[in-house]
Write a structure and sequence with these properties.
The chain has 241 residues and is of the alpha/beta class. It contains nine helices and nine strands. The strands form two sheets. The protein has a seven-stranded mixed sheet with strand order 1-3-2-5-6-8-9, with helices on one face. It has a two-stranded parallel sheet with strand order 4-7.
Length: 241
């Protein structure tokens, strides 16, 4: 395989796809519990964790290749943030492969980012262009995790985001082929999770999908920011199951 991954446990397979400010380590607390009842698959997408960047690739294609490599034909997929977007792409292309989706604070096609999120991206890009990777990393820790997160969760996020910068910044521009998201093809049960302290873009994305999916369930978390599985790990585990 071209991407790094872990597989632990036995039982029905469940794929956990990390956020764009993290890597597969973000699921550590959930993997330990899930592995008692499930076969848990946690990949690092390209440019995260233990997977280097490639000049040309497809994150969704990599997920499908991984599932084929493991010989899986029926999978529950859980995606956080950008990972949820990749899951939507993969499931739109191969809906027969996925029995259930859980999309946690995930973006989607045809929804515009809100002004606050655009401003954050601009601030991050300015810091990176100025060579201040430490400040860009701290910006992530300040803005992408909710008030319920403890110091351990913030430290882990800091480590994961800095690792992503270390891989991605030297790589420069890359070609990541994105598959179209087709809500009409996603007829399997889909759980949409949003956080009250998150950016409006992700709430709007969940609403867009809820209006178009055949079998959607919506859960809005009053305590959550963008990364509820890091903010309240035990409670978030129940949201996945």
């Amino acid at each position: 395989m071209t991407i790094s991954y872990d597989v632990v446990g036995n039982g029905p397979p469940i794929l956990l796809v990390h956020a764009g400010v993290a890597d597969r380590r973000m699921w550590s607390a959930q993997v330990e519990e899930l592995s008692h009842t499930h076969q848990v698959i946690t990949p690092d997408l390209r440019g995260y964790g233990e997977t280097p960047v490639a000049p040309k690739y497809s994150d969704a294609g990599d997920l499908l290749d991984l599932l084929d490599h493991l010989g899986l034909t029926h999978v529950t997929a859980v995606g956080a943030s950008y990972g949820g977007y990749v899951v939507q792409q993969a499931a739109s292309r191969r809906p027969d492969l996925f029995t259930r989706l859980v999309l946690i604070c995930a973006p989607t096609d045809n929804v515009e980012p809100d002004d606050a999120l655009r401003a954050l991206w601009a601030e991050e890009n300015a810091l990176i262009e100025a060579g201040d990777v430490e400040a860009a990393t701290e910006l992530t820790v300040q803005r992408w995790i909710g008030p319920e997160a403890d110091d351990e969760a913030r430290s882990l996020l800091r480590t994961m985001q800095r690792r992503a910068y270390d891989l991605q910044i030297p790589a420069g521009d890359v070609d990541n082929e994105e598959y179209p998201v087709t809500p009409e093809a996603l007829t399997m049960p889909v759980r949409l999770i949003t956080g009250a302290h998150d950016f409006q873009f992700f709430t709007d994305s969940a609403t867009y999908l809820q209006d178009r999916l055949a079998n959607a369930e919506r859960i809005d978390l009053p305590w959550a920011g963008h990364l509820p599985t890091l903010e309240r790990p035990a409670e978030a585990l129940q949201l996945i199951l």
